[in-house]
Amino acid sequence: MQKPNFLVISTSNFLALQSSASDSTVIINRASGSITVEPKQTLPHTTPIECYGFLGISHFSASKYLIAISQVQTVGRIKDCFIYQIKEIDFIPYRLSMDDLPECKEDKAFMKMLHSVIHTNSFYFSYNYDITDTIQKISNFSEHEKSLSPWERAEKRFFWNYSMCQDFIQAGVHELILPVMNGFARVETVNYKGNSLDYALISRRDHRRNGTRFNTRGLDSAGNAVNFVETEQIIGLWKDRDFVICSYVQTRGSIPMLWSQKPNLAWTPKPKINGSVQQNEESSGLHLTELMEKYGGVTLVNLIDKKGSQNAIGTAFTDLYHVHSNEKLNYEWFDFHGECKKMKWENIARLLHSVAKKIESYGYCQVSTGENDYMIHSQVYRKQSGIFRTNCMDCLDRTNVVQSVFARNSLHSQLNGLGIGDKATGQAFQPFPEELEKCFRECWVQNADRLSILYSGTPAQKTDFTRTGKRTIKGALDDGKYSLQRFVINNFLDGANQNAWDSFLGKITPKKAKEKMKWKYMTLLKFMLILMAAIWFSIWTANHSAGNFAFWFIFVFCFGISLKMLKSNGSKLVDKPIINT
């Protein structure tokens, strides 16, 4: 277990921060908030606070707070670089005595929200590995980029505590800035045909348009997509004296256009296309251009239905693709539910066949490093020249199944390229040897669950198939349970949930929160009281009728009218976030 390597020495006048890897001491003046760097020195005798690093500094109503990472869990390591999951944080206030301040209560509310975000177990960091970047990008850093501090070359889309680090950045205390990524990470070591093989799966969420399921859909005007995730599958093994690494990257993200699907107590709210045709073309153009600049070729894989309300969204998406179509941009609409109906998920092989040329031409990244070298000094042998951007309506359940199929296909190609595996056959679920197969399935199930919880509030659906290779009765029952849970969470709790995430990202100020924040369960309580009143009214009315049949007829009639009135006013009864996009 990693030992804490940072100390915080607290006195009445200052906070002194020391790192075991640094020869300096960072001094934070409690009164002025100024940050200075001094040579490492002997400080006043006091019991220090041990921690693993710092998220940064937050400005609340009563005080500024240094946010220390107090508990971590080791996820695994890639070569000699360990990855850690943040389990707990502590708030260290600049002001010593605040209990008598009215603003202290507001600060505690903000701390509670930030704790709730951290307790999603979805934040990760590494001291000597750039977890915000892909292996390919790390290996291709220029000499100038290599000379920068880790936070300066970090991928800002996935640098979630960037806003919290502004005080550190302005003071130039680079050694305290620790880029933290949100999403999923897992690393396992398996025996593969006598080789010790490291398998890692890392999913990085983009923070620029963060939001919860029905509150935030599609793009914003700058082309940022909600639930945009870059997923990198990595394998590594020793060959002679070199550590060889193969990486495969793909992305998911909400349908890249201006659209919404606001909660309104309907089981599935009707999606709506927003903005003019020109505005949609501009926003989608910005999004697709950024993808091509960062990844090269892009194939858009659309998994939504070709019927019902999804068809209208899919048709509009297809029209936008034709507007932006070029030699680097491709599109495939694969109606997952239609093609794989009656549990015939092996039909995903049809999708593999349709995009086979792109799979081959995009390839994967392969690098190697020496025994004592970090990834930043890797030798590049192959480069991935393009990515698949996959979406369904939520970019959760169907998307994860298809992404795991693409990843499986690439992994077969990588193992074959290393001379230790068979060629990819084009089957959707071509198996690996038992130990790697079990590891692969479990990692993709956990990835699905984590990303689903962060966006929808529940674990993913269809994971019984990803885990076992077949649909089960228990899996179908779990999916029904998760659907019901999503209905409650998305309608009555997601406003408060999104407020917590926006607070973490610095989008909500204490002043704005004080004016508009309400108790998290207020909307759910109000709905339950209205529902109970409707039931009581129906029973009271039915009791004034004669006969058993008349009672039930009038009860069902009155309750049905009440439910219809609730539904017609549904958009007024759901929980809304402060920032409603």
TrEMBL record:
Xref: PROSITE patterns: SAC (PS50275)
A Pfam family (short name) is Syja_N
InterPro entries in the record:
SAC_dom
Residue spans crossing the bilayer: 521-543, 549-566
Task: Please list the residue ranges annotated as the SAC domain.
Answer: 114-457
Domain of life, per UniProt, equals Eukaryota
PANTHER family registered for this protein in UniProt: PHOSPHATIDYLINOSITIDE PHOSPHATASE SAC1, PHOSPHATIDYLINOSITOL-3-PHOSPHATASE SAC1
**Per its record, how is this protein called by name?**
SAC domain-containing protein
**Biological source species:** Blepharisma stoltei
